Amino acid sequence: MTTALFARHALLPGGWQRDVLLEWDAHGDLTRVAPGAAASSEVRQAHYVLPGMVNLHSHAFQRAIGGLTEIAGDGPDSFWTWRDLMYRFAARITPEQIEAIAAQLFAECLRHGYTSVCEFHYLQRDVDGGSYARPAEMAERVAAAGAATGMGLTLLPVLYSHAGFGEQPLKPAQARFRTNVDEVLGIVEALGPLRNGQLEVGAAPHSLRAATIDQIRALASGLPPDRPLHIHIAEQQGEVQQCLDHVGRRPVEYLMDHVALDARWCLVHATHLDEAETAALARSGAVAGLCPTTEANLGDGLFPLAPFIEAGGRFGIGSDSHVSQSPVEELRWLEYGQRLLHQQRNVAHTRAQRHVGDYLWRAALEGGAHAAGRRVGLLEAGRRADLLVLDDAHPNLDGVNEAEVLGRVVFCGNDNLVRDVLCGGRWVVEDGRHVAQEEIARRYRQALRDLRAVTS
Ligand code: ZN
Known about the structure:
Elements: E1 4-12, E2 15-24, E3 30-34, E4 44-51, E5 53-58, H1 79-90, H2 95-112, E6 114-121, H3 137-149, E7 152-159, H4 181-191, E8 199-201, E9 204-205, H5 213-222, E10 229-233, H6 237-247, H7 251-258, E11 265-269, H8 275-284, E12 287-290, H9 292-297, H10 305-310, E13 314-317, H11 327-342, H12 356-372, E14 387-390, H13 402-411, E15 418-423, E16 426-430, E17 433-434, H14 437-455
Parallel strand pairs: 1-4, 5-6, 6-7, 7-8, 7-9, 10-11, 11-12, 12-13
Antiparallel strand pairs: 1-2, 2-3, 4-14, 14-15, 15-16, 16-17
Helix pairs in contact: 2-3, 2-14, 4-5, 12-13
The structure holds zinc ion (ZN).
């Protein structure tokens, strides 16, 4: 097994460095990252090397409905009409099928440069709403897909008790999602033996709609203190209005009134913030989990990125509903949404980092690593050996200097410039193909055929 790589140019914590020797151990941890090393014919060589990206928000099963909800209805379509179709699919997926769908998704994500996924996992009960004999069955299947593909995972079993603000009872279509605090903590415990360098377990109250503030506090205090907590928040204006109607506070404001937000928290979407919430969220150290392609697909709105960066806020990216499996597309949309909104160029940057591609890649890694609660996001000793070798023979990268690499990767063209991927010390993508791509795709196609037969 190869346990070293020599990179002509590698993006290290302090910036681009030349002639970098990277070594890792049998556990998949980097043991040495040494710039200015001498090339050796015994060590595999690469030209441009980046740390692998963190995908901080995923619902793996939704990969199966990508592209199926793009038909206009009679009235204006919205998040809520999309959710109806998602529920119909979710009602039928079996453990075997979620494993096949997640494996396909993770292989695609790895090919495009994600080496970590945070799985916000709410499909936990059997098709009839009863508990599986093993209550963590569905989460274990997602973990199996992670192990089979080599993807690093943070599993987030979801607390989902209500259909809306004011403790509304769940609808029949939500029966598979139903959990209380004790059940979620039980699943977290059941998943404990799976924890290793490639897999962490946190938890996620689904939203302020689906969990009360008392439940959220109980879950946060019942979870071991070093584990990540994620929550959907302020995704649609309708949700902000419902929160105002019920508790007289905006969602982020209300959460911060009752929960000590810090770096262990990831607030997914956080789209609709007022100025005070933007500044307070930035100050808290919690990560804003931005999912630009899904937020665009669902017509959610745009996050106040410029003031959040100005206030020193921390953010990362997620592919959420998986209309895209590419970090390039998330980062490009994140920036382009802001350009269209403000009629201005090069929005995402700081005075210290004016290269927008570099700023976006590194900021999303920093936030993503916090959200994942795993030792990822930087190429340095002690972190996971998660890295991308770019295709230096592609015309977009041929002969470019290192300061131009991420500008080209993020903003130029549609070819996937990720050639090889090392994840947790395993080469899982070689020459643009996942090492088990055919078998994974075969099982996925079969799962989809079976699902279509029962949902159409
Ligand atoms: Zn989500």
